[in-house]
Design goal:
The complex is a heterodimer.
Chain A lengths: L19 H33 L5 H5 L4 H19 L13
Chain B lengths: L2 H37 L6 H8 L3 H19 L4 H6 L2 H4 L18 H5 L15 H9 L10 H14 L9 E5 L7 H7 L4 E6 L2 H10 L8 E5 L12 E7 L7 H14 E12 L5 H13 L5 H5 L3 H7 L2 E8 L18 E8 L4
Parallel strand pairs in B: 1-2, 1-4, 2-3, 4-5
Antiparallel strand pairs in B: 5-7, 6-7
Helix pairs in contact in B: 1-3, 2-12, 7-10
Classes of the chains: A mainly alpha, B alpha/beta.
């Protein structure tokens, strides 16, 4: 599903922040937040269906994970955090012209 | 997009709007009041309020959210327009033969074409599914009212009918700017024997009104495509002319024409009643309301709010002119409401018997 060209107009942008970059960046944040909520809603629906079918026990899923499970997720978690936070360092990852 | 994802996204946006309506607005109002207290000066105009708030970070987010939550609601990835567009093959055919009296050659006024009101892409009249989009969008226009939004129209109709306890005054009713019929049905229920004509510029909205309204089975109710400022009715055609949330969509010159047209087609002694936004208490509320108009693509809210209604209506032969704040839902405190709300107002007048 793509956003239709008919919904993209050549009209002046309304800006509310001193730098229009922040207006646009916050738009990205809200679009992502919407996606996160859509996924969250779908996961909950899936869990309800699976529990109704006797496949999972949601109370069991809600329990604190065991140390083994946390360790099993650690590598994936660290990679996720690195990919997110490395952007704050301003480090270059390819040689530029200067 | 699947239905679940659409509903989840729209629910998320509505919850965000509810947070905006309560917490952000209330914090912003406190910010403003603290700044006023510190300055020792009392603002008297919206410009005074703007000087205090426009550089404030919370106000910038308030304004951004007011504009962009509405944009995402209509035109985002999970917006009302793409959702209905994907269901066109199912939704559109039943709208093509509804009994609504459409005039495909009716010229749309330039103000109506120039701005996409409510940030509804293309406005409410350019696509055959616009009635559906508008109807779905209107359900979440006022977050705190929730499911009681439809009750607003019944409360308005009850107010009008309360001044006619025997239900005998209004045998002929004109509902101007009826949209998808949300205002027409309560009048049909209150006055089942009255002949009701419901008119609007938008063909798609009228088609949906005729398709959905239980009143469509009644020969007493007609949905007709027409400009309320220039109707085809003869003088003395109606006992009551009414509208809900129409007037603020019109530029001042068109409002004058609307009132003049109501005077022309009303019976002597007939009544005109509009539910709209007008009675605004204080410069802070006025600043917020004018900002809402700009951010929501409703450029005529400000000139309408500043219009001298009494002078305009008196000139056109109306008397007993009243402009009354309207309680849109049970429990709303008109004097001390904490959360953001529209300045709901009833404007009513009677045509002079000799006028």
């Amino acid at each position: 599903m793509r956003i239709s060209d008919s919904l993209i107009l050549d009209r002046p942008e309304q800006n509310f922040f001193a730098d229009p970059a922040l207006d646009r960046a916050f738009g990205v944040v809200m679009a992502l937040a919407t996606e996160v909520y859509v996924q969250r809603d779908r996961v909950r629906a899936l869990e309800r269906k699976l529990e109704a079918a006797g496949i999972i026990d949601r109370a069991d899923m809600d329990r604190e994970p065991s140390e083994d499970e946390r360790q099993a997720n650690a590598e994936d978690r660290e990679a996720f955090v690195e990919g997110l936070m490395i952007n704050l360092l301003g480090k270059q990852q390819a040689k530029g012209a200067s | 997009m699947d239905d679940r994802s659409f509903v989840a996204a729209q629910d998320f946006l509505l919850s965000s709007k509810t947070f905006w309506t309560k917490q952000i607005y209330e914090d912003l109002k406190r910010t403003y009041e603290d700044a006023v207290a510190r300055s020792g000066k009392t603002p008297t105009t919206p410009a005074d309020v703007a000087a205090i708030l426009e550089g404030d970070t919370l106000y910038r987010y308030f304004a951004w959210l007011e504009r962009h939550l509405q944009r995402l609601k209509y035109a985002g990835r999970y917006g009302l327009v793409p959702y209905h567009d994907e269901r066109r093959s199912v939704l559109a055919p039943p709208l093509r033969d509804t009994g609504a009296e459409l005039s495909p050659t009716l010229e749309m006024p330039s103000y109506y074409r120039r701005v996409d009101i409510h940030q509804h892409p293309g406005g409410v009249m350019s696509d055959e599914l616009d009635g559906y989009v508008y109807e779905r969008g209107a359900r979440s226009t006022t977050p705190l009212m929730g499911a009681s939004h439809a009750d607003l129209h019944h409360r308005f109709t009850d107010l009008v009918a309360a001044q006619d306890a025997e239900r005998v005054l209004y045998g002929r009713i004109l509902d101007m700017g009826c949209g998808f019929g949300k205002s027409t049905q309560p009048f049909h229920e209150a006055y089942p024997d009255a002949r009701i004509d419901a008119i609007d510029l938008s063909g798609p909205c009228l088609a949906l009104a005729a398709h959905q309204a239980p009143s469509r089975s009644s020969p007493k109710v007609r949905f007709r495509q027409m400009n309320a400022c220039a109707t085809d009715y003869e003088p003395d055609s109606f006992d009551l002319v009414t509208s809900t949330m129409l007037v603020h969509e019109l530029p001042p010159g068109e409002i004058e024409k609307l009132f003049a047209e109501a005077a022309r087609i009303l019976a002597p002694g007939g009544r005109m009643v509009h539910l709209d936004f007008h009675a605004i208490d204080g410069p802070f509320a006025r600043f917020m309301h004018y900002g809402h108009g700009l951010r929501n693509n409703e450029p005529f809210m400000q000139p309408w709010a500043e219009m001298d209604i009494h002078a305009s209506l008196s000139d056109k032969g109306f008397t007993n002119i009243k402009v009354i704040p309207f309680q849109e839902a049970e429990g709303v405190d008109l004097e001390n409401h904490a959360a953001w709300r529209f300045p709901w107002t009833v404007i009513q007048a009677e045509l002079k018997t000799g006028g």
